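Tutorial sheet, problem 5. The six components below are modelled jointly, 1344 residues in total.
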Amino acid sequence: MDAHVIKKISRPAQNLVQELADFETATVHEAYGGKGALSCDIKPIDPSGRVCGPAVTVSGRPGDNLILHKAIYVAEPGDVLVATVGGYMEAGPWGEIMTVAAQARKISGLIIDGSVRDSSAIRRLRFPVFSRAISIKGTTKETLGLINHPIHMGGIPIRPGDIVLGDADGVVVVAAADLTWVLEKCRQRRDKEEKAMEEIRRGKSTLELYGFDKVLNAKGLREE
Amino acid sequence: MDAHVIKKISRPAQNLVQELADFETATVHEAYGGKGALSCDIKPIDPSGRVCGPAVTVSGRPGDNLILHKAIYVAEPGDVLVATVGGYMEAGPWGEIMTVAAQARKISGLIIDGSVRDSSAIRRLRFPVFSRAISIKGTTKETLGLINHPIHMGGIPIRPGDIVLGDADGVVVVAAADLTWVLEKCRQRRDKEEKAMEEIRRGKSTLELYGFDKVLNAKGLREE
Amino acid sequence: MDAHVIKKISRPAQNLVQELADFETATVHEAYGGKGALSCDIKPIDPSGRVCGPAVTVSGRPGDNLILHKAIYVAEPGDVLVATVGGYMEAGPWGEIMTVAAQARKISGLIIDGSVRDSSAIRRLRFPVFSRAISIKGTTKETLGLINHPIHMGGIPIRPGDIVLGDADGVVVVAAADLTWVLEKCRQRRDKEEKAMEEIRRGKSTLELYGFDKVLNAKGLREE
Amino acid sequence: MDAHVIKKISRPAQNLVQELADFETATVHEAYGGKGALSCDIKPIDPSGRVCGPAVTVSGRPGDNLILHKAIYVAEPGDVLVATVGGYMEAGPWGEIMTVAAQARKISGLIIDGSVRDSSAIRRLRFPVFSRAISIKGTTKETLGLINHPIHMGGIPIRPGDIVLGDADGVVVVAAADLTWVLEKCRQRRDKEEKAMEEIRRGKSTLELYGFDKVLNAKGLREE
Amino acid sequence: MDAHVIKKISRPAQNLVQELADFETATVHEAYGGKGALSCDIKPIDPSGRVCGPAVTVSGRPGDNLILHKAIYVAEPGDVLVATVGGYMEAGPWGEIMTVAAQARKISGLIIDGSVRDSSAIRRLRFPVFSRAISIKGTTKETLGLINHPIHMGGIPIRPGDIVLGDADGVVVVAAADLTWVLEKCRQRRDKEEKAMEEIRRGKSTLELYGFDKVLNAKGLREE
Amino acid sequence: MDAHVIKKISRPAQNLVQELADFETATVHEAYGGKGALSCDIKPIDPSGRVCGPAVTVSGRPGDNLILHKAIYVAEPGDVLVATVGGYMEAGPWGEIMTVAAQARKISGLIIDGSVRDSSAIRRLRFPVFSRAISIKGTTKETLGLINHPIHMGGIPIRPGDIVLGDADGVVVVAAADLTWVLEKCRQRRDKEEKAMEEIRRGKSTLELYGFDKVLNAKGLREE
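Model answer (structure tokens):
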């Protein structure tokens, strides 16, 4: 693995990021045409945690966290660290001290395709972390890696500056270039969903509302 | 897969269902002679959630939820939707809108051998859901399936009208025809367990209480 | 499997155990030179639960809990039951009645490489349990086993009288003979970590604090 | 678990069983309307092994094989033992001696939702075994179980006398009552498939052959 | 999911593809700077199978194979079908008939992040297939998908025309644009490895050969 | 992790090792009182491979193989390398060159709780390897580890000089101090098993042979 850090990345306008932060991941994923969702194995360590911000991408080695320390000081306030460590679960390259350091730097959260430790301290500090597992075990601080190079994680590609949104359902990533239109679709979708739920609460069926009845008939569903 | 809906199913008397609702799944499973428990991978998305009601069974295709929409309107108040979708985890065929629709129909809950999305909304709405996983990803609405045909799920057979009970430990299913005697056994078991716990709290050992001491001796346990 | 119980085990001084109880598992694991952590699959059934005490080790057969009943009456107040049952997940050899019995005996908690049932009752009773899974299914009470023989569990060896510490991150085990020096290292580590976090909160980077900047340079990290 | 043996079961006519033995599991599964396939985790320990015969069903306890010994002497020549042992993988209740005993009894093979040991001896003896795993570890011979009661295994129900067919793809089960019509469908399917493959080898596309081109157009596939 | 087919893709020069075919995947992965390897869960169904060719990428729905049929007729001789079907394992969208069709079209092989069926027929026909699992179950032929759009599979991105190489170790993908220099590195690596193995066979240690002895000393390995 | 190598270990007499080599792992495990079997996830990459020899134990970091190179030159002819690398599967710290080096040193084989690469070359060279998985990906050569310190692997403890036996069923480890009596038990067991199989082939049932009939009756098995 190369050892290289790109310090400058472009980030979307902050107001767009803030607006995205209010949507649910499932809404954004639908609005995005079914794209951007990480594998369902990457989950919040605290289901009430939420995060939204531009990705600072990190590629590290399994069982080592030196490059993650560096990343804390490459990220800017509001950024989310998004780290791959080779799919290794039996050591947590992130713990309480790094959480304190990240909060001192006003970093918004961490998405990691591995484990973290000090999970109760992280919850107490209310730092949003999305990981595959929790492990007691610490790591070495010996090997280098890449910061702000494109990565692939949980089944999708992530570039530095892409917007990462995490909630109880998991994590969805929106390419920076797509943020404007995805937001527009999210707004439309939310309006539509709110109206739909209003109508459903008043007694309309989803079969009527979405025309599923016709689809079911056309496809030949037999009832008795 | 066939496409067929059976609208009329027979359900046990409501007072029996209500009585079962107060028991723990582990008690019912023991009372039932060690039968009826689904695989331990199907768990509540909210550990404080509980559900009890007659099953409306649904067989759908992986990654599609059209037939689940239909099932909301086949089920009657108090019913529990029990759905198989081919063991597919990477898409959630159930979300917030369907939860709102199900609650408008007074459906009691959902058991699914797959994933759901909008998990925080579902928790907020306090709709009990038992699933294998949580996934951000939505589904198509294109393929048919079966409603109220017998299914096999989590290692056991479930017929429409069987009683489904879910709590923090998981889900247990009681065949409609067995409900009366299982309830009787549950009552006996609860009484016996309450008395046992009372005696244990007062200092009696489980070895004495259940005669395990004799079994251990008879089997030749050596102590030093 | 043999059937044998050793009743007398030596335990470390109680004040040492009590002191260890205040540390986090991740701290102890680091202080212990990266030793003693169980596999990350063994987790608290209630993330707010914590346990610390000398191990009473139990080796039982899959799907049977007779020997676990016996162990409740071999253990002394403050002890932690640490049980292997052959890696079987689809039955819970521990439930509400055993929890009540264990609390009557002032046992501190249970670590099991299997499942438990009655999980909501266990949570309500605030008895700390660390397990691989939760299962509704009960067990037979027919087969013997070993109590207070050395066991291997979650990747590490555990002897009776070793100190077991569990928290939200998982479980770490300290050999009785190592407890004094591990505690000394824990104290040092905690002091050092608290000072470090204080400095980090004031604005010092972890790169400076730990000299990682020099390591990164020495190893040739390129930045642009 | 109860302890009960049913000695007499009805079996389909032998010529029907022999005819089914020549089909592939995938063909039979399709002919059977997509029913009867066990979970893809139950696989042959030797991919060249094949088995076909009436099921003698066995329900045993995890880690014990006493009831399996009994089953060898309940089964008749040509039968297939189909055994559940509670989903336990870390012990093999079947090994070389039982294989020799089963072959002395002219039993056709074994399907087990657990592990076997002595796998190289079993391969050398050319006894077809389909299992979830291979384990070195033996079992106790202490607990009873059920023989020739209905079981549920790998996601489907199996009754004694149902026909079990296993090959490199896995295992499919045909209910005794359905065997005649399933065989008829299998024959039709094989003829159709052979003709189809002949036409495809001569250059016809599957799009033409099955009319998929029209389906693709009707559904609006865009090409460029 | 969109429904769109791109028929024309650019492919690397055939002589380059043929040369790559002679290298091992592990060699190519190293030569490629540790890039391009799919997750180790995607494996040959026949360990003696090998494949090399330009990727025709396919994105389909779980449990449906209509778009895979189409892809057989979009691919050109020598191409490799590389298909994602949403990570669904419990149905095999590829079987004997499609294998015959693919061979009639001189397609080189199939890489699929799902299951296949008719595995013994596929082995007998010597068509190289790399999949996550084998399943008896067939699929519907109802839903559309994408052909020759970029996909992400097994942790890496794949574009149409990238070169896919599979052997007993798994699958590695080389971007078309990198093929020339990767081949050059492969040649160098092979020469170096052959010389190295020659020297090792003659008695030289890898510690000497690669200078690891110095590294071990520099890092402070203590021996006794 | 410390970095330390112990060069001198004691090994059992070679004739004892050679005698053990002829037994099956399942026989040895039974003869050893049900002890010594590694988890069933550690399997031969070639089911026809067998290995037997004294363990040279290695503890390395995930994703690094520097210490494994060193171990090749610490081991003596006939030894088996037994390596833990932190349970990391997505990189293979052992490949063709190391196999050639190990064979030049007359090392008997490798047991690893991780992955290997170049699996077809390893098979071709007929070097017995037992691993959890196969991975294309290589490793760094940067971090140190321990050689000939006690390790824990696959659920059991292994000390340098313990005898490791691997075959198609998996791996069993016999402590050096127990080898003499375990061999004696193996011989007895083999004789007994051969006689038993002879009697079974002649028509005696296992129920008679082992007295299981009496056990079944005593335990109250009901037949009809």
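Marking note: The helical segments of chain C are 14-20, 25-31, 66-72, 96-104, 119-124, 179-201, 206-209, 212-218. Full credit if you identified this.
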